[in-house]
Design brief:
about 500 residues, mainly alpha, two-stranded parallel ribbon, about 65% helix, globular
Length: about 500
């Protein structure tokens, strides 16, 4: 059975590794390694102790990359690996496997191992960039490859098994297969990471704090792992290095064993590919309810040149249709949540309305993520193009995203209007234009919803943590003034994103 599991895992991994997305994933891990080791003058940090960081020697860089990898690689690697079972269904491989003697537990374990191999490739990219970053920053030129790489093996790889197992489990539970599962993972995993931090990194963080206290008595020793914006460059301390003990080894091994057991747990309910027990897995489910395929307009003739009045009517019809399709797919719970958020936005003090807007504009995430992908997903793209210009349809999709932003953000908007907050209203308008434009471009390029979901959640999380450079919603203020980009700049970016979406559309049509 071991050889069967290995064969399933390797066949699936080879298929994934040949795809362009695999290369993008590995390059993304390299980029993470570069960003994770900022220069001495940087005003951001991903690992810090109070207002200090360790000197960039092999021991500290290796441990820092292991910490950052343990947080970010499972968080975003989950979105990369979670479509394996759905792909078996869409390609017909599942039907072949259902007729084979392969046991369900072995199939699930093979998918788990395949997921882990992809995630391990991301960790390997971090390992390869580690010595480069140490030499590039130049604070210590003495390379110790064991100190650089051992933390990734002992700390990061066991944590990656959690994401590998979770991806298998999520694909076997109907409510978690689509976008709802993506959002849930983004909030659940960081909580799991923080809860497990003392168990896995307790000795390390204690060592950080002890060395900082010895070298800088009386300094704040709060540990931060993630992404924070700093008012100035961090101070430095020298870390004495990692201590390996039996407790650490046992914790890492226990995590691996537990994740394997979780990966095969769906054996009790997963019907594999039996049509009588298993429905088609949607690649992108909507908010709380099934999405009905949009009805393609009935046209009796081919494309023709429309008059300006006809173009206006066509645009208006498409705009209304897009809004109805998107909002018609949400459940009553979505509307109830929106009502609660709207009332809360009207009730909060005027200086907290930005926070209310941040949470209000989390609700349309799954709707925005389908911009640029909906007609492709439902297979009616050629039919829609027969009756109206693709450019008009693209602009209508963006307009629908703007109207959805208006529906979700109406509470904060009314609050800002009542408070005569013209700055906030301008930022609201700019954000309502830019976010759908970004979703449209990503959807037009990738023809899938998961990439935008991950990108937007990163932006949302960064704003929540005070990163001003990506605050296109106007949430963060300094003495009443916007801390982030100006509304005019955001509107300009929106125009660029829409133009890029139109360019993608032209390129795709030229290749047909």
């Amino acid at each position: 059975m071991t050889s069967v599991v290995a064969a399933v895992a390797m066949a699936d991994f080879r298929d994934r590794s040949r795809r362009p997305a695999f290369l993008v994933t590995v390059l993304g891990a390299v980029a993470l390694g570069y960003v994770a080791v900022p220069p001495a003058s940087a005003t951001y940090a991903m690992v810090k102790v109070g207002s200090f960081r360790g000197v960039y020697d092999s021991a500290y860089i290796g441990m820092m990359l292991a910490m950052i990898g343990s947080l970010w690689l499972p968080l975003f690697g989950f979105y990369v690996v979670r479509s394996s079972i759905a792909r078996d269904i869409s390609t017909g491989v599942g039907e072949t496997l259902s007729a084979s003697p392969l046991r369900t537990s072995m199939y699930l374990l093979g998918k788990y191992l395949s997921n882990l191999l992809v995630l391990a490739a991301m960790a390997a990219a971090l390992a390869l960039i580690a010595p480069v970053m140490q030499l590039l920053r130049g604070e210590s030129t003495s390379l110790d490859m064991t100190a650089l790489w051992l933390p990734l093996v002992l700390f990061c790889l066991p944590v990656l098994t959690v994401a590998a197992a979770a991806a298998v489990v999520f694909e076997t539970i109907p409510l978690l297969r689509g976008g709802s599962g993506n959002i849930l993972w983004f909030f659940v995993y960081p909580s799991m990471f923080l809860a497990g931090l003392p168990l896995i990194y307790g000795t390390t963080t204690a060592g950080f704090q002890a060395d900082l206290a010895a070298q800088h008595p009386g300094m704040d020793d709060e540990i931060s792992i993630g992404l924070t914006e700093e008012p100035s460059a961090l101070g430095q301390f020298t870390w004495s290095g990692m201590d390996i003990d039996a407790t650490l080894i046992a914790a890492s091994a226990g995590l691996i064993v537990a994740s394997m057991l979780v990966a095969v747990l769906p054996t009790f309910w997963f019907g594999r590919f039996d049509p009588s027990r298993h429905q088609h897995l949607p690649s992108n489910s909507s908010v709380g309810s099934a999405v009905e395929p949009p009805v393609a307009p009935a046209f009796s003739q081919g494309p023709r040149t429309l008059s300006p009045a006809e173009c206006g009517h066509a645009f208006l019809g498409l705009l209304i249709g897009e809004v109805r399709i998107h909002l018609g797919s949400v459940s009553r719970w979505w509307w109830l949540t929106l009502a609660i958020v709207t009332v809360a936005a009207l009730a909060v003090p005027a200086d907290r309305v930005g926070t209310a807007l941040l949470f209000a504009w989390l609700l349309p995430l799954l709707l925005w993520s389908r911009l640029g992908t909906l007609t492709y997903e439902q297979g009616v793209d050629p039919l829609v193009e027969c009756g109206v210009s693709p450019r008009i349809r693209l602009i209508a999709e963006w307009g629908a995203g703007v109207l959805i932003a208006a529906v979700a953000g109406v509470g904060p908007l009314v609050k800002m209007l009542l408070a005569l907050d013209s700055t906030g209203v301008a930022a609201w308008v700019a954000g309502a234009a830019l976010i759908p434009a970004l979703a449209l471009l990503i959807g037009s390029i990738g023809r899938g919803a998961r990439v935008f979901q991950a990108v937007y959640l990163v932006i949302w999380y960064a704003v929540l943590n005070g990163v001003t450079s990506v605050d296109v919603m106007g949430v963060l203020r300094t003495d009443g003034s916007l801390s982030g980009p100006s509304p005019l700049f955001s509107l300009g970016i929106s125009a660029v994103l829409i133009a890029a979406s139109l360019l993608v559309l032209e390129i795709r049509h030229a290749r047909r």
